[in-house]
Design a protein that fits this description.
The chain has about 325 residues and is mainly beta. It has four helices and 17 strands. The protein has one domain.
């Protein structure tokens, strides 16, 4: 019930330094903690209510992604727009990857329609982008359709067949094995960042245990949440072939009209710190089980006049990028 090995470099002083201009390392809490904690030997499970099921298109689809085209690098961008997804991401490919880490700025983006969502996450990807894509995902999201409100929530997702029949959000199906009694999947995280105000971050690390082969997830510095067993996957039973970090929104508007659902803070990258959302200290886990700065980072967005991404590197934040945007505007019809 614990990983055999942690990635080398995880607790190096150089990795834990926080830029003075960045957020204070305030403790990130979940709102349910105000009402108590779970006893040792148990795990918190968010209650599934009748209304949660009624919002789903069907019992079979509850807790699953609605669209099969759900990865930015999978198909022609024009098809992605038809699929209703918009992205602003950084990515690496061309090597074998055994995990990824990022410190993610947390916001509460506004959602236009209840069946739309906005998320910021990292993707661990294996295989082709056909019907056999393996994906492990984690980050924060606002999804009224899934949760019934506009709160920012910690989430995970996995699939072994390109979002067709396997996988789900959080622990709404078997797959992810939770071991932590402190952090609930799908629960609200608080506080969130404010424009020109206090900034709040969460750190997420996913890595493959070199001995058992399971993919583990850590939240913050202290919480090992659980693992995805290696037997769930084909390609990821060995390694990942691509890592992505960034934002995604789903757009339900017809006829090519863009939603005004916000990505990240809802502001473009050029506005900078405390106004635009960011990922910082993005890293990958290499074949020696060591955390390293990623090499050859690319960026991708379907329409940068709607949602954009700008990457950079410095001593305090390592490899970082700002991303996001407001969606529909005078420049984004």
């Amino acid at each position: 019930m614990r990983p055999n090995y942690y990635p080398e470099g995880l607790y190096d002083e150089s990795q834990s330094n926080v830029a003075s201009s960045s957020s204070d390392e305030k403790p990130m809490v979940q709102l349910w903690h105000q009402n108590g904690r779970c006893p040792e030997g148990t795990v918190p499970i968010r209650r599934t209510k009748k209304n949660d099921l009624l919002r789903a298109s069907s019992m079979r689809r509850y807790g699953r992604k609605h669209h099969t085209i759900a990865n930015p690098m999978s198909v022609n961008p024009t098809l992605l727009n038809e699929g209703g997804h918009q992205h602003a991401i950084a990515y690496v490919q061309g090597d074998k990857y055994y995990g990824a880490k990022a410190t993610i700025n947390v916001w509460e983006p506004k959602i236009e329609q209840p069946n739309e969502f906005s998320l910021s996450q990292l993707w661990i990807l294996g295989g082709s982008f056909g019907e056999d894509l393996n994906s492990i995902e984690a980050g924060w999201q606002v999804s009224p359709d899934l949760y019934g409100d506009n709160n920012t929530r910690l989430f995970t997702y996995w699939t072994s067949d390109a979002y067709q029949a396997t996988g789900c959000y959080n622990i709404l199906c078997s797959g992810f094995v939770q071991i932590n009694s402190e952090i609930a999947m799908g629960a609200s995280i608080f506080p969130t960042s404010s424009y020109s105000g206090s900034q709040y971050d969460v750190s997420i690390l996913i890595w493959k245990d070199p001995k058992e082969g399971n993919w583990w997830m850590q939240f913050g510095k202290d919480y090992v949440l659980g693992y995805w067993p290696s037997f769930l996957f084909s390609y990821l039973a060995d390694s990942a072939s691509m890592i992505e970090w960034g934002g995604e929104v789903v757009n339900s508007q017809p006829d090519g009209v863009h939603t005004s659902t916000q990505m990240g803070s809802g502001h473009f990258p050029e506005e900078g710190f405390s106004k635009s959302s960011y990922f910082k200290n993005i890293q990958v886990v290499d074949s020696t089980n060591s955390l390293k700065a990623p090499k050859g980072v690319g960026t991708f967005t379907e329409q940068s006049n709607c949602y954009a991404v700008q990457n950079g590197n410095n001593g305090d934040w390592g490899t970082y990028f700002y991303y996001g945007g407001p969606g529909r505007s005078s420049n984004c019809p």
